[in-house]
Predict the structure.
Amino acid sequence: SFMGLRGSLPADFGQGLPPVQGYSGFRQSVFESGRKYAQRFHDVHIERDGDLAQVSLKFETRLVELGGGGQGWKILHLLKVRGDWKIASEFYTVDSLPADKS
């Protein structure tokens, strides 16, 4: 599962998982867009029990060329698979950041 939201869930939020399985759209807009981003993380909290971990953090993401971007809070659930940590789910909030005034 992978989903971002701006504040609260929409009133017409449907039942089932399709609305929260948005990784392909995220991947396309971030990794395949050709844009470059800079990220900062703070207030990172990690809990782990064996091969299961939960991470919460606050983030700021800025477009390198244009400034602006987003900030928010996210929760990730991780599984250790064959020695490597994999993201099983990620949910995050996002608010806009204004463009840099330089």
